[in-house]
Amino acid sequence: MKGITTIGLTVLLFAALGGNLRAQQSSSAVQTVTFGVSRTSQMVVQSFASLPNEGSFTQVSDAKTFQRKLAIIPAKITFSSETPGGPSAGRSTLSRQALSQTNLLAARSDAANSGKVQQDLRTFLQQNGTLRRGVAPLVLTITD
Amino acid sequence: MTLRRGFGYLRSSLPSVRITTSIILLLTVASGTALAQSSGSSVTQSVTIEVKPITKIVVSGNPDPLIINDAVAGSDFTSVSDDNTKYSLTTNLDNMKIVASISDRMPSGTKLLVRVSSSKAESVGEVDLSSAVSPVDVVTGISKCSELNQSISYTFAADADVADVQTQSRVVTLTLTN
Fold first, then answer.
1. Which residues in chain A have Cβ-Cβ distances shorter than 8 Å to B92?
2. Which of A50, A96, B33, B121 could form a disulfide with B142 if both were Cys (CB 3.0 to 4.6 A apart)?
């Protein structure tokens, strides 16, 4: 009786193994995926609000944008101004000397710094900029 | 004289002897052929046939390097994609699927996504393989069929705060299985 049971169990074991082997059908193919991140930066300033009154600065509309991009290359932003007409034309809006070579930010990408960027820029412009009537582009440059 | 007469008879009767001989020979050959045909000879062969379960999947090669070297200002993450590689498969089984796995986890702040298309089964869509060292489904519901040159699309994405990732590779395994 014991022998019969052993044979029965052996048969069952082989049947189970056989069934298992037959059930597992597969085929594989492999691909190698190569990737990397290069140092990159891109800054877009949508628009600054108009500066209607001398000495007032109202808005940095896209501070968050360039603050985020700064996170890719934690670096500094250099401000300068371009005055198409030149100072002699009486349309200078920002002091070129005060704005150049100013390392304002080395921000990281987090929510707290987003507001800080905007405030820093506003403060900087209020302290160093000589705002007058007129329109001139403000050049923001991301550098190492 | 008698002898001459005998040879003359023989000479005159020769054509009929030839005809008789020819007929006998013809009959002998014909009967031999008939005998050969009626006796016959056959051989038999056993031809054994079977169709084994078949699962086969191949890919057309490796995707182009996925290098992020530009960004969109204001975007939380940047990405690049490649959909130049294809796969083909054949199976005579039902309830099959394609699963994908990656050889090693992706670096922190980066993602590797894959989308495996299928014209005869159901693509799961874009699947995150970034930490899929164990296989995850990418196509399900494959029945007996063959598919040729189906698209594989890879997307590599990096968060905005990921500065520099040296070029490196991962092996992605696509498995047709049940």
1. none
2. B121
